[in-house]
Predict the 3D structure of the following.
Amino acid sequence: MKAIKQYIKDTDKLCILLCTLCSTLSVIALVSISYYASSAERSVFANYRMPIVQAGAAAAGLICAIIISKIDYHSLAGAWPLHMIVTWGLVLATFIIGYAPSNTTNKSWIQLPLGLSLQPTELAKISFILTFALHLDNCRDKLNEPSTLAAILAHLGLPVLLIHFQGDDGTALIFLLIGLSMLFAAGIARKYILAGVGLGAVALPVLWFGIMADYQKERILALFHPDDYTDLLWQQNQGRISIGAGQIVGRGFFRTQHHPVPLAENDFIFSYLSEALGFVGSLLVLALLFALAAKMISTAFRSQDRLGALICVGIFAVITWQAIVNIGMNLSLLPVIGITLPLFTAGGTSVLTTYLMIGLALSVYMHNKKTLFD
């Protein structure tokens, strides 16, 4: 009991509370979705598999986060050969034994027993944040030297390219945004930022005409010409109708009049929550996620070294960019690219990975005693 009390005293209680509230709201939404999809011919587990897996992943993730938080993040970063070989080895394995679930064409999952699955790129996010933060920290005084910057960009570019060839461009984009956010926080010179913007503008035509597949182009064109792509936008249109149907306070959970949205438990969980809880509930979801993201930045400032700060910036980038992209998809402001809403979307790997990252942030919090007056 003494150890538990000491842990509660030392840890970031608000961060844990925010995560718990997100997971609780997610499980309630998934129980509600499962309730109307249930059948008397199936077992309770079969009917409520999604919320059971989600609750189990959240509980296991929270336990793992507590364990990780007790380990010094310097040791976790220093063990980069181990976690890099394991996580990226699993990613490479998907090229051989990977499979695509029924709602996607990306063979980026590995089948597990009991009908479960693993998406290795989710775990690879943790390894990438640790190794990239360590690389940036080691190069702190030479970051803006061309040779050093070239090595750092290679460190960022190789995982992005690997995931692109895997077929999961949505996750590749998130990796790119994580790396760029951490690079900006590390203090890259303004001239390189401007050069990067210029190169990006030049690369857009190459990307459009030489790399992007026709279906990817159509997803973007559909946002600007919705009348010409009604079939392609059908899911997003249903999601927008669902969001609007919630009005101010929502229709509530466990009601039959919810507007049907295909695979609402996955990429469109925000639309379901918005219909159930209304505009007020939408603001609540946004507040929880961005409060969690703000805690990552707060912990970064609390850190007494760059390594801890950069790790927290990486986790901040995951939560923030995934929330922005996912909600943009729900509002038809961005194309559907298969990005989850952190801690809300149904998916054991995604939830577990997010809690593991939270454990890293808690480690930074607990292994730094810096205060406002230091």
Q: What stands out?
A: The chain has a mean pLDDT of 90. Residues 70 and 212 are 44 Å apart (CA to CA). The first strand starts at residue 110 and ends at 111. Strands lie at 110-111, 117-118.
